[in-house]
# Entry
Amino acid sequence: MSWLEEAQQRIKEKQENAQNDPVFCPTNEDQREKLVNRLKMFYDNATEREINKAIDDALDKFDPPYEEKDFMNFLRTKLED
# Structure
């Protein structure tokens, strides 16, 4: 196999893996519940109401598809005291 064929194969594999990666979508009820539980562990002092409000604010601020890193940074600024 030449280096070009090997490179093309790696590109194809990465594209297939990218399609199979789970998409961060906090609008999905199941993923939102997981996100709330995750945030409860990180931010002990935040109530569930505060967490849900922060998630709603982030959904208003960002457009789909949501970048998990930016979304979580926004939530961190809202939930840290």
